[in-house]
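Summary for the steering committee. One of the milestones for this cycle was to obtain a three-dimensional model of the protein with aspartic acid bound, which we needed before selecting residues for the alanine scan. The sequence and ligand used are listed below.
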Amino acid sequence: MSIIVHKYGGTSMGSVERIQNVARRVAKWHAAGHQVVVVPSAMSGETNRLLALAKELSPQPDLREQDMLVSTGEQASSALLAMALIKQGTPARSYAGWQIPVLTDGAHTRARIRSIDDVRIRADLDSGRVVIITGFQGVDEDGNVTTLGRGGSDTSAVAVAAALGADECLIFTDVDGVYTTDPRVVPEARRMNVISFEEMLEMASLGSKVLQIRSVEFAGKYHVPVRVLSSLTDPMIPVEIEMVSGTLITFEEDKKMEAAVVSGIAFSRDEAKVTLRNVPDTPGVAYSILGPVAAANIDVDMILQNISLQGMTDFSFTVNRNDYVRTLDLLKNQIGPAVGAGEIVSDDKVAKVSIVGIGMRSHVGVASLMFRTLSEEGINIQMISTSEIKTSVLINDKYMELAVRALHKAFELDQASIQPED
Ligand code: ASP
Ligand code: MG
């Protein structure tokens, strides 16, 4: 008998009818002889609704209370799912994070899971019940309810699967898998049958919204097999078919090594670029600039220091667009004067486009095909950053979709022949 964890996103839990559909699907897996644990998100829109109520009361709500508030979304959807299952004749029980408990650190609104007690879960599974555990939340060691950050139910599900040593963690969502790029931008985008864990990690951190990045990190740390698949198909399709559909995140790279050089294209508009002109090019200058930025808890992504001219250089870096105003403030009022910089130039109309693929390790000329493709489209590259398995460029955000389409074509991602075998 295998242990399978199912995670259902907000859209899948979005109405009583959809919850009944989820219940049908879960009951089918249970009837096929699996021990099933379900981790649901709140019904779609509920977390946003609750956050908006909090904002009405205070622009900066107390974070402990905000966690108390938003965690109710998952509590409601979990109880509703348990009711639907019981009504359909499948024994089920729902638990809030603190009841299990799912122990986290105390960082409200962005807590990290420390441990999950499996005693209650196993006892219920062994007595034939489906166990439902609220996504997105836990409890700290002082008994305060915490939440894991937006999209955190993915991480809850993978963590539960890790704690139970589950055979697979199935992430049921409103898309049927991980695509070579967002099909809303490139209609020819293809679903991948498998993607390597490392590629998925890059895709998630570079802007693909399919899985919360922490869930991918968790899967990597504990080697949890994760599959992304659609919850919007007929819930009664056979378990055997569901077991091989969607996209499997695999740790067996050999299977993929000979396949496509580039597997996917990620992009993000959440970028902003700042430049300090005429900074004295002396040892320690990067630290004098980026030290205070880090101290202000602002994540820096790409960094570029120009060659120096008469002892002076230009220093550019990118941050998330949400941190743009704060970063500019810091540069104008603190860092610029401290390092004796000249003018501060900034641009929040930039986007990052990245090609990702473990095949890049063993192939040359990948980045140059990317640059050639962009130059043929007349798109100027402002910054470049690379790792072993990705190349990212920063461009004017006006051309982001054009760049993604051109690259998808240039790397032949629309052609089924290079679909990695599964
Ligand atoms: N309900 C939470 C959110 O909307 C967590 C999740 O859906 O994964 O972010
Ligand atoms: Mg999600």
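Key point for the committee: The pocket of aspartic acid (ligand 1) is lined by residues 10, 41-42, 47, 73, 135-136, 150-153 (CB under 6 Å).
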